[in-house]
Structure formats: structure tokens, C-alpha cells
Amino acid sequence: MSKVSIIGAHNTAFGSFVKKDRETKEVTDLKSIYELLNEAGRGALADAGVEAGSVDGIWVGSCSPSLFANQEHLAPNALEVDPAGLRFKSATRCEDACASSSVALYNALYAVESGRCETALVIGVEKMNLLDTKGVTHALACSSHWASEGATGMTFPGLFAEYAKGYRDHYKLSDRKLAEMLAAVSAMCYRNGLDNPLAHFGKGSPADKLGLSSAAAILGLPEEKNPMIASPLRLHDCSLVSDGAAALVITSTESARKRGKPVVEIAGIGHTTERLAINVRPNMWELMAAKEAARLAFAEAGIAAKDVDVAEVHDCFTINQILCTEALGLSADGEGGDDYLAGRFTRDDEVCVNLSGGLKSKGHPVGATGASMHALLYKQLVGQPIGAAPAKGAPEVGVVLNVGGSSVTNCVTVLRRAD
Predict the structure, then answer these.
(1) pTM of the prediction?
(2) Residues noted as catalytic
(3) What percent of the chain has pLDDT over 70?
């Protein structure tokens, strides 16, 4: 089986690329889903130095383009990245909620491993802000177990609030202690996001203007600035509704080495699935399927948690960043929140988490998130960090933990710089 490496990546800016008239409710699209998809694809090919005609197949990850942007059958639009070079190439859309573009990457990887493809283009994209809050809430709820969750009024903040309550109760935390842990996570991501020029909540954002660089600042906000969304999760525990795209070019490691450029190998992957409805899961204080995905990925890569230099984890809600950190073994079970309170996982630590600012600050265009996590980690490993970087120098081993739905689809990828 051929080993596979990333040879190019591109991340668009993330943000709300619409203009909304409050009186007429008219929405003007300032950067369409097609423009975002094309920008990411062209950028990744340029970064890799690959001609479009050399691409053997395209995989597009998108969660719900039909609900968000009225575009079903999205993958063929990827041919517009370069119509002359990509016309008649295979193009396939993958959907697994917020893990859609990680799954797209895995399907492309399988094609390269098999020898069916030599070079593949992977793009993740989502255009969310054409909808109002009610519309976004409904579209996302379609990635829950509709019969027992979405149809009954359960939202994604509500689903992850169940994890927060489960964690609090299992480890016998006070409401105040949990709030302090969650605020420490949010503050760290906001600090990192200030250095990411692509971040939705970067410099000049509300988080910057409010000075939310410490847990104390977040905890000190008045109720109207940080309202309860789904107890115990408040506004600043929730990731952003964003528009954006990211893309990767992958090929066999053998071919990558011949190019004379830095090689980042996909050293191991783990892809697991939890039961969809939360009411049939045995507990709600740990990500059991994510732990299994990490075990599989680490075993394939031949590493342990102590070997990880940098990680991008799925902080759709602050509680999930804590749970992901524990699932990867970077914190012991029940100690992730205390570790963040103690100041671990910053750019000055031995292992850095969410240097991009995470979904909390970078943004969370759901179908683009997995590709973005891989793209920005790739940039860290080749010594071209976009924004914050580890103080100890260029990392060698990075890990992505991207989840879809209420931590149902779990994708763990080990990336390793192969000098």
C-alpha cells in the first residue's frame, strides 16, 4: 500500500461574507460558495505547483450546501477551478456533517493508496451566512438524529450542553469551576486567533474589542454580552457561523519526495463512528469513539501522545475542546479542564493546541473545517505557519481531531514531517 503525503494547501479567509439589510431583510452575497470553492482549489494547486491536468480525481466535502446555499450536486462545480484541466475528471462530494472534508480527504487517500489515483485534489467548503439564525439552526439540526433530537427542538448547543453537564457531574465539578475551565479554553483560542490573518474573529473582531484574552475577562462579561445559550454553555462557549473553504493536494509519498519540496506524510488515520442519538450512548462525559479513532491513528503512525508537537482539535463548543484533548491522551481523563486552567497547550508549551484559534476564533464553516484543520497544520509542519507558531520551533508531528455531528463521526489524522 502506497504511503500518501500532502504537497500543497490553501485556506481562504473565514468570515460572514454577506450584507444583510435589517429593515428589508434582503441578503446580498459578497462571496459565493462557488467563489470560495474556486479560490481554495486554485490556491492549493498553486501551492503544490501542480497543473490541474495532473489531477486524477477531486473530492469535495460539504455538509449541507442545498440548505445553506441552494446548491445540491456541488462537486461538479469544482471543475471550475480550472475548466480546461479538470473537465471530465471524477468529482465526488462527501458528507459527514462537520467532518465532511476530513472524510473527503480519507476517500482521496484511499484512491491514492490503491494506485487508482496518483494525485488528488480535496476541497472543503460551506456558505452558511445566507440564512438567518433560525435557518442556520435548522440546517445544522439536520445533522442530529432528527426523530429524537432535531424534530423535538434539540439544537447543537443543547446536544453539547449534555456533554458539559455529563462532564461536570461525572467529575463532581461545581458550576463555577466548569465555567472557569470553559472560559480558559475560549480565551486561549481568542488569543491565538488574533495572530491568524484568516480568522473570522481575528484582530478588530468583537472578541478583540472586548479584550477577551483571559478567562477572567470572559467570566466578567455582563449577561447581555455573554448570554446563556444552552445551560451551562454561554455565547462565548460556541463556535462561529462562518463562510469559507480550504483545500489540499495529495499524492504518493514516493512522488512527493521527487519534487524536492518539504514532505508531510499522512502517517496514520482513525475514522470511527458513534451511535447517532445521544440517548443511546453509554455515557456523556467522554468521546469514546474519538478515543478509538486516536488509538487507530496513533498505532498506524507508530506514535504515542507524548510524541505530538501540535494539534488542531474540534472546539465547536469549549467543552468539546476539553473532551478532544483528553481523547487524544494529551490530558488524562477528567484533567483537561484543569490543564487549560493551568495554562497548558499554549504556543509556549511542549504541545500546542489550536494555534489557528480553533473553530471558536478561526471560524467554523462546517464543511470546510476538516480540510482547514489539515491545511493549517500542514503549514505548521513545513515551517510556514499562518499566525501563531510553537515557541520551541517548527513541529515534526501534528494531529487533527475533527468530529461530525454531536461527536458522531470522528476523524483523527497524524501528520508527520518527513525530512
Answers:
(1) 0.98
(2) 98, 364
(3) 100
